[in-house]
Amino acid sequence: MSARAPAPLLGAALAVLRKDLLAEWRTRIAVNSLFLFAFAVLVLVGYAVGPTRLAPEDRPTVNSVLLWIVIFFSAMTGLSRVFVKEEEAGTASALRLAAPPPAVLLGKYLVNILLLFAVTAFIVPLFLVLMSFEIKCPSLFVVLLVFGCLGLAGASTFTAALVSKASAKGALFAVLSVPLLLPPLIAAVSGTQIAAREEDFKAGVDFVRVLVAYDGVVTTAAFALFDAVWRE
Amino acid sequence: MRLVAEGLSRSFGTRKIIGPLSFSLENGRVLGVAGENGSGKTTLLRVLAGLIRPSGGSVRFFENDETEGGLQPRDAYSLLGWCAPDLALYSELTAEENLDFFERVRGLVPTPGRTLALLEDVGLPLESHSKKSLSFLSTGQRQRVKLAYATLHDPGVLLLDEPGANLDEAGRAVVQKVVAAQRTRGIAIIASNDPRDLGLADETLSL
Amino acid sequence: MKSFGSVLKALLGLGMAAICWGAFLYARPAQNFVGESSRIVFFHVPQAWVSTLAFFVAAWYSWRYLKTRRIEDDEAASAAARLGFLFCVLATVTGSIFARVMWNSYWNWDPRETSIVLLLLVYGAYLGLRGALEDPERRATLSAAYALVAVVTVPFLTFAVPRMYQSLHPDTVINVRGKVEMSMDIRIIFFSSMVAFMALFYWMWNLDRRVSRIVRERAA
Fold first, then answer.
1. Helix count (H) and strand count (E) of chain B?
2. What tens digit of pLDDT does each residue of B130-180 get?
3. What number of C-beta contacts closer than 8 Å exist between A and C?
4. Does B14 contact C220 at a Cβ distance shorter than 8 Å?
5. Does any CB of chain C come closer than 8 Å to the CB of residue B53?
6. Interatomic CA distance for residues C142 and A142, integer angstroms
7. What is the DSSP code string of C134-158?
């Protein structure tokens, strides 16, 4: 008779994370789609635009946009799987009856953060090399990547929970995510352009602040509303 | 453990599926739910499990006589065990990993011995499952793992939808054993049209 | 109260007619605007305002739905979103025409143009989500959750699009100097139009809710 109190949040969330990583390790479906998509787009962009086609003064502007487009669309190919898979395989009900709802969201959020960090760590060095994209302020660049990816993962984990219950999941995932992600993406792109142009971290700190605030707000809203989505 | 349902009903859009139903179940009792296909047995169990909101009426679980007002299904998930044909476990994981996971999310501390004992109880000895993912088990073997999933946290309320489906004679004996054990710690509800399942119940509700 | 409603509707019709007359025949064109283009302010600004207002109305009723689970609140939210989408399209089109006359280009990605596009995207996503959900309760719950997440994330655009970029857009009605800088005649017509457009929205919104209720009761 030990199961009367609901499980502690963090322990249950880590159990969800562990379970998803183990299942992902065996099938590698999300990882494969994320990385192959990212690689295909990198090859395409590298071939079509490349390091030499752009005038030096245009490089910060264009390359920043291209980089975030690659990251954003890679996210859109793989991050909905955390919830879509549970609904499609029929395992969602088993999880609903066993785990506290916030632990499910936190676990899935952590899975998506890890996936997105991994694919970003793969994309960014290749992109910098393929496009001869020089960053003047690497610290600003890294901070923008980290908080940008946290925001991307936070909003898209929530929309993944929504679309997993709808028809036409694949198309709907991007449709629902774009309006929520446009503000942080604009901030991330603008900040990256500054990181490519200027050595001073302070020049782009406004965009870092926007991203941090966005991450906080979107995560709070997602946790507040998740129970309504998960158990309707 | 006591269950009280009052005026319980559920409709989807304009189609009425169940109710209004009122019934109660005292500790140690087992209720059978019978009814032809489409009469709402599965829906009733899903409402009791908190997976679907009732359209009207209420369900309350009382852990003991002091619990005032009782718990709604949604707040009682840590007390509930549910096994149904539309329940699926993780097919990429082995039976042991599945149970290990569900023990962890329920806040139990899994030990290899405990998990193996659970699998022994449902008649799945070690060699048949240890390194195989669930997708390589037969439907009947998976049904046994699902029974283990439903009971691993000693639930006060056990909801069994067609528990004997796809099970052989030995599997039926496992269901009997599970229901007998449930009588000692709470209540059970069995939805089925199979006389062998309904025979385990003390009383039967016909939908 | 049928007669009272009819009086209000008649007043709204007369008011709209009077605003059209005032906007095109009475008010003088404002300075610093190309030709007659300033007259669009009487229609474009109220439309943009109503489309923003409708977004908050939809979010408010979404929140109420999650509290009460009454399907009427969901119908109110979706009615507001549908009308908000309509007014948003109107505001985008009229704004774009104005941009062509003033700045010789239909679209400039001015911060204001960007924000109205984001509003269009949100409305589109919300209505798309509703279209993809069959079960009425599930549709109501999930779309309410989406509306509420959108209402807290969309305002971030204001911060993400920096003030450093110069906005071509004329000053907002209440500008940074905190004053309404309009001549008296323009001011009267403009604020009458704001009130009239909000009344129009309210009337259409009620009609939509009543239609939803009748459809629901018929089906039962």
1. 6, 8
2. 678 888 888 888 999 999 999 999 999 999 999 988 888 888 999 999 999
3. 101
4. yes
5. yes
6. 35
7. -SHHHHHHHHHHHHHHHHHHTTHHH
* Complex ipTM: 0.92
Phi, psi of B100 (to 5 degrees): -60, -45
Tokens describing residue B4: 């009280």
CB contact (8 A) between residue C135 and residue B14: no
Q: Is the peptide bond before B125 cis (omega within 30 degrees of 0)?
A: no
Q: Do C219 and B14 make contact, defined as CB atoms within 8 angstroms? A: yes
Return the axis-axis angle of helices C71-103 and C111-131, rounded to nearest 10°: 150
- pTM confidence score: 0.92
- Please say whether the dihedral angle defined by the alpha carbons of residues B91, B95, B101 and B105, taken in this order, is positive or negative: positive
Q: How far is CA C29 from CA C34, C105, C185, in A?
A: 9, 21, 11
* Rounded average pLDDT over B99-122: 87
Residue C8 CA to its chain's centroid (Å): 21
Residue B168: DSSP 8-state: -
CA separation for the pair A79, A177 (Å, rounded): 11
Determine the residue of chain A that is closest to C155 in CA distance.
A183
Q: Give residue-wise pLDDT tens across range A70-117.
A: 999 999 998 999 999 999 999 999 999 999 999 999 999 999 999 999
Tell me if C129 and A172 make a contact (CB, 8 A cut-off). Answer: yes
Alpha carbon distance A128, A147 (integer Å): 19
Q: Per-block average pLDDT, block size 10, for chain C (220 residues)?
A: 82 92 85 81 92 96 95 96 96 92 85 88 95 91 96 84 61 56 81 94 95 89
Q: Cα separation of B25 and B45, whole Å?
A: 14
Q: And the tokens for B79?
A: 């007390």
Chains in contact with chain B (at least 3 beta-carbon pairs closer than 8 A): A, C
- Contact between A74 and A175 (Cβ < 8 Å): no
- Alpha-carbon distance of C73 to C70, in angstroms, equals 6
Token pair listed for A140: 């600003």
User: How far apart are the C-alpha atoms of B79 and B57, rounded to whole Å?
Assistant: 21
Rounded Cα gap, residues B175 and B181, in angstroms: 10
Residues counted in chain C: 220
The answer to whether residues A75 and A118 touch, using CB atoms and an 8 Å cutoff, is no
Decide: helix, strand or coil at residue B161. strand
Neighbouring residues of A173: CB distance < 8 A, sequence distance ≥ 6: A76, A80, A156, A159, A160, A163
How wide is the angle at C-alpha B184 spanned by C-alphas B119 and B176, nearest 5°? 50
For B120, other C-beta atoms within 10 Å of its C-beta total 12
Query: Collapsing DSSP states into helix, strand and coil, what is residue B204?
Result: strand
Mean pLDDT of chain A: 92
Q: Is the pLDDT of residue A193 over 60?
A: yes
Give CA separation, C203 vs A218, B8, C83, C208, in Å: 34, 39, 11, 9
